[in-house]
Write a structure and sequence with these properties.
With 268 residues, the chain is α+β, with helices and mostly antiparallel strands. The chain folds into 3 domains: 8-88, no CATH class; 98-152, no CATH class; 169-266, no CATH class. It has helices at 19-29, 73-76, 81-88, 98-111, 120-129, 136-143, and strands spanning 44-48, 63-67, 155-161, 194-195, 198-199, 203-206, 209-216, 224-228, 234-235, 246-247, 252-255, 260-266.
Length: 268
């Protein structure tokens, strides 16, 4: 409104430069969930844990996601939950994968030197102009810079990493109250990677349902495995309501996977 002729990166150079990047980082860190009522799909604010009037900074570790229903003057006053957070020092959630993501980011820009960096504060308004709901794949559409959409895709490609080795502290350190390592625990069975030609994370089809092998039932000669769909719901045998496993002899091998899971999913 001050300068109607600005475009592109100039949008980022006003009085709020950097603010929206931090704001959307905080929303993503808190999974777009109000940290008071734990509800989603509400109007969200970034609240200063230590109030600005008390010297609080705009750093992400002093910001937390609160919905408009909880971000009230009553909650800010003594006795309110936001006031209690300030007095007791509310701790915010921290990402556990920054090193991994920094490595991926660096390697991406080395391999694709012509790529450009963008931020959530740019992607979000672009996605809203396209009238798309908040999803990762819709963010990807907005990032492309497309101006109009003629038709929406009804599916998208989804993949995630799968850890085959279940790392357990009980194998290397004594459990609480114990002096010796619990190296003989039967829980080591969860690290079985292969049984009867079926590998952990293999994609199987069972009665028109497709899922991935998350583990094997106990027993060296057992043919049963835990099978989960792409939303990690356990696929069960309908004739055995109390069982959490399926018989691999009744399954069809779709494909063998390494440490990743791939699927084509329908848009909601």
């Amino acid at each position: 409104m001050v300068n109607p002729d600005i475009s592109g990166e100039d949008y980022q150079n006003g009085n709020t430069k950097g603010y929206y990047d931090v704001r959307y980082f905080v929303f993503a860190r808190d999974n777009y969930t109000c940290q008071v009522c734990k509800k989603k799909n509400k109007i969200l604010h970034t609240h200063h844990i230590v109030y600005k009037s008390k010297g609080g900074t705009d750093r992400a570790d002093n910001l937390i996601t609160v919905c408009s229903d909880c971000h009230t003057s009553v909650n800010h006053k003594e006795g309110g939950i936001l006031y209690t957070w300030m007095i007791k020092g509310k701790k915010t959630r921290r990402y556990t994968e920054p090193t991994f993501m920094n490595i991926v980011r660096k390697r991406t820009f080395i391999k694709y030197s012509e790529a450009h960096i963008t931020y959530g504060s740019i992607t979000s308004p672009d996605r809203k102009i396209l009238e798309l709901p908040k999803t990762h794949y819709n963010d990807a559409i907005a990032i492309t810079g497309i101006k109009t959409i003629k038709e929406l895709q009804d599916d998208y490609f989804y993949f995630k990493q799968f850890r085959k080795k279940k790392r357990s502290l009980h194998e290397s350190i004594p459990r609480k109250g114990k002096k010796q390592k619990n190296v003989n625990s039967t829980r080591n069975n969860k690290n079985v990677k292969l049984r009867h030609g079926i590998y952990l994370n293999d994609k199987l089809e069972f009665e028109n349902q497709v899922g991935w092998v998350y583990g094997f039932s106990s027993g060296e000669h057992s043919y049963e495995c835990v099978l989960k769909d792409n939303k990690e719901n356990i696929i069960k045998m309908p004739t055995r309501t109390n069982s959490l496993s399926v018989n691999t002899r009744q399954c069809k091998l779709v494909c063998h996977n390494d440490g990743w899971q791939f699927s084509l999913q329908k848009c909601s």
